[in-house]
Design a protein that fits this description.
With about 270 residues, this protein is α/β, with parallel strands linked by helices. The protein has a single domain, classed as Alpha-Beta Barrel (TIM Barrel), CATH 3.20.20. It is about 45% helix and about 15% strand. An eight-stranded parallel β-barrel has the order 1-4-5-6-7-8-9-10, surrounded by six helices. β4, α5 and β5 form a beta-alpha-beta unit. α4 packs across α5. The radius of gyration is 17 Å and the shape is globular. The protein starts with a helix and ends with a helix. The relative contact order is 0.16.
Length: about 270
């Protein structure tokens, strides 16, 4: 695990410890169950599958204010407006950063973005405990992210089972062959390849391309990080990669949705 990832996960462990003192695990689980009675998940994996199987770009458009590697990405950060812009310009799903310490995110950003549109939403954060999964569900998330580099095998399986119990989809993120082998033990069909090396923060699209031969055909592949130009998109499409997660390129644009349409030629 990289030093930055170690630092993030240490903070997350403390956040969970403090959170459990305020809201016990059974109480958070009840909050998740209450949400599910009132509002069923929107089908994140289903939406991605429809786009990918149609061989069209299925874009998870990201809502984030900042990142550790790039700093502040957007001054006029308005999650509902960004969500509506993405939806109007052809996004398949939303990704909302909820980490506060490193990405200047909040769970309130997810709630506000989801209320502003009809798209399925993934909670983009560093999850390490069932409490966070129930919290994501209670806030309205339709999917969660699990980062293989940050978690042991048993924790991955436990968090996936917790998400499944809540009816949430799981996007499992990997960066290399060893992490891919571990991810394939999980049940989820959503597999994200992060092109960013979390040790150096360098980005290489070759990361996705090099792992392609090892991806089983039943997995829904999403390439993450480093998609900045139309050329980048075309490289992936030429290799039959149709799932994309893009944030920085959109967050720096005056109108994020228009940047999405320009990059992917989507219909909205």
């Amino acid at each position: 695990m990289s030093k930055i990832l170690e630092s993030i996960m240490a903070v997350k462990a403390k956040e969970v410890e403090q959170g459990l003192l305020q809201i016990a695990l059974p109480e958070m689980k009840r909050a998740a169950e209450k949400r599910l009675r009132a509002d069923e998940p929107r089908g994140f994996a289903r939406a991605m599958r429809q786009g990918i199987e149609a061989k069209k770009p299925a874009v998870i458009a990201e809502v984030k204010r900042a990142s550790p590697s790039k700093g502040l990405l957007r001054d006029d950060f308005d999650p509902p407006a960004i969500a509506r812009s993405y939806e109007a310009h052809g996004a398949t799903c939303l990704s909302v950063l909820t980490d506060e310490g490193f990405f200047q995110g909040e769970l309130a950003h997810l709630i506000a973005a989801r209320e502003a549109c009809k798209l399925p939403v993934i909670r983009k954060d560093f999850l390490c405990h069932p409490w966070q999964v129930y919290q994501a569900c209670a806030a309205g998330a339709d999917c969660i992210l699990l980062i293989v580099a940050a978690l042991g095998d048993q924790v991955l399986q436990d968090l996936e089972a917790c998400a499944n119990d809540c009816g949430l989809d799981v996007l499992v993120e990997i960066h290399n062959q060893e992490e891919l082998d571990r991810a394939l033990v999980l049940k989820t069909g959503l597999l994200g390849i992060n092109n960013r090396n979390l040790h150096t923060f360098e980005v290489a699209l070759e990361t996705t391309l090099s792992l392609l031969p090892a991806i089983p055909p039943d997995r829904l592949l999403v390439t993450e990080s480093g998609i900045l130009s139309r050329r980048d998109v075309l490289i992936m499409l030429d290799h039959d990669v149709y799932g994309f997660l893009v944030g920085e390129a959109f967050m720096r644009a005056p109108v994020p949705g228009e940047a999405l349409r320009a990059l992917f030629a989507t219909q909205g």
